Amino acid sequence: MNLLSPSNPQDVHRSLGLIRRRAFGAANAAAILAMSSAAVLVVLVVAVLTLRGEAPLIQTEDKRADTAPLRLYCAAGVRPTVEKVLADYETRYGVRVEVHAHGSGTLYGQIKTEVELGTAPDLYLTAEDSYLDQGRSDGTIAEVIPIGVQRPVLIVAPGNPRGISSLADLAEPASDIDFGIANEGAAVGKKTRAIARDMGILDAIEQRRKTEQETVVALVDAVRVGALDAAVVWDTIAMMTDGVEIIEDPHPAFREHVSRIGIAVVATTERPTEALRLARFLSARDAGLAMFESDGFEVVDGDVWEEDPRIVLYCGSMFRAVFEDTIAEFCEREGVTIDPQWAGCGKLVAQMTALLESGVEPDRFPSAYLACDVQFYDSIHEYSGQRIFGEGTIVSENDIVIAVAKGNPHDIRTPEDLLQPGVRVGVCHPTESALGTLTRQMLSSERFNNIYGRVQAQKSVEVDVGPTLVSQILAGGLDAVIVYRSNVMSSAANLDELEVVEIQDGESGLARAVQPWSIAEMSEHKQLMERLFLALRSEESRQRFESAGFHWRASR
The whole model's pTM is what? Predict the structure, then answer.
């Protein structure tokens, strides 16, 4: 797993295939989009912008009272650029940062030891992402934010007086070229050995090297002053150094073994919010990344810098009971504000469609969308030939069930039993709600004898979300409701008064909704949303979902 790469969709094609086998899925998607007529557009734009202003925000207080400097362990080759960024940060916000620089591997070893001793730094900026993978696995590292890429290159004295064209030249038995490599505690030393191994010359390189340095800076200086004829260093530091020349080695190993630079929050920091704010600044495209790029680094597509960002998030109403606490905890730690909109997915898609037609600015469009079912992701994934959301990743599945009063007084065992005279039935709206859409598709199928029209005639109430139906049956106004399992199990008190009747759908998948997460292409906070997605996939989050009856599908 590469923690600096976007999360890969898991089981998405299998689940999308399951839904697309539903006979009515495609027709529903078209019906949802049809809601965005000119008349509806005006109403929806006004409604969504009003909703955004009135919705309860999940946010946190500013906790920057502590004036002690933050501590950052930084890869030596990246230090010059980092210190320029930190000087800018201190000028803007008065936050001091102490920097300790060394080889990435050496620093990682120190952090592991210091975590045990309680003396570890707040942040770790490495030139080798494998240490971040290790750190997440062993609990040393918490959040990780990508910054950019460095590439190993061969450097020589100006004019290349020894006529060196490849790393292979240094391994020749008769060669008298003096060269050095970094030790394995430095990221560039690790990459040099990987390249030499791929070229089949590792043993010769180890035997013939004149010196082994602790940092890439020491190697560059040795070549610059003539103490060495050649060395393998990072392209970025070579380009910033006068007195050395870069040799383009044609072997593909030099292109394959790149170094991904990332900034990580150390798990034991007592100031995670301040550390994360600094990490966001270092990795923002209009702040730290601009400095990295000007110094020759190949940078990632970072977030826009905002000291206190406010993010719009769209979530189906089924998730409020299981996701709201995760969002609150995330905001508390990150020092950001998230404005979640909880509603039926039909309504959410209609709102997004209206916003797109109005030419809304990115900060008013949701940065991410957790859909109640994949067909509602499908219906907004692309719009007017434009890709709106990235690939969906399946988080969970949720069964559609019938909830009845304790003891099941009407002996309801199947959806057809809802048609008994006098049974007061509650359902969700067929277009505003994902649950209502899925109910219509399910009961309109041959599997259930096409009884949807008869259930519609029988119904006593039609609402936009499942929790409303649960409230009404608990109040005694209904005898049976078609809801998600999680709508019933989200509260232990519900189970004291209600029973769940399973809907047997065979292998059709008609009685199950599949929930994908996706990030908006226009979002200016994609990295922040990636971290929220990691929080959504955490073990604590999984327990919340499973205790509410969801089937968990996301892996950490």
Answer: 0.83
